Known about the structure:
By secondary structure, this protein is of the alpha+beta class. The chain has helices spanning 10-13, 51-62, 79-96, 102-109, 149-152, 165-179; strands at residues 24-26, 34-35, 48-50, 69-74, 127-132, 183-185, 204-208. The chain has 6 helices and 7 strands. The strands form 2 sheets. A 5-stranded mixed beta sheet has the order 2-4-5-7-6. A two-stranded antiparallel sheet has the order 1-3. Helix 3 packs across helix 4 (102-109). The longest helix has 18 residues, at 79-96.
Amino acid sequence: MDEIVLMADPRVAAVPVADCGEPLVDVRLRDSLAVDTRRAEPSGAFAQLREGVLIRLLRGQQLLPDGLRLLLVEGYRPPALQRQYFDRYAGTLRAAHPDWSPERLREAASRYVSPPEIAPHSAGAAVDLTLVDAGGRELDMGTRVNADPEESDGACCTDAATIGPEARANRRVLGAALGAVGLVNYPTECATRSRTNLSEDSQLKEVPDG
């Protein structure tokens, strides 16, 4: 298996970042992707993505087998909300492992939530997705959407050996379609009911490659 580089890795932070200039667009106004409301908040940020990411998702959706669609769960995440997510999960880990150093806690937390200062969600460049059928029913991805490594006993990882054959096949369908349009998956998050594991976020968490 290839090395998993977590978002907390210094090599990630060392990558220069520059705004691409693409606008954030509200996916709900395009009548193109199915949008879930479980992460909805008053500002509607959850349904926004960089235009280039949306274009790739639409192309990827066209590559899915007949009758399947992408379901967007969460896109843009304001920095303050990203910090809240990260601190909450790190706090849960700290309570369970009081002997862990701050460095180890940060690394472990980044398996599930990107550190706020480098989070692609806060640039509108990452998206949590899953697959639904023609009737809007979510496909089996092996875990619930946004399940963490502890809750799922590692089943949220893209290549987890503990999921069933149907879930594995569904993950492959999602990964293949999105990978074909330049999106990459974050291997510690499965992509679907666990955040689309292509991403940055299996449900897959997807982020543009490059």
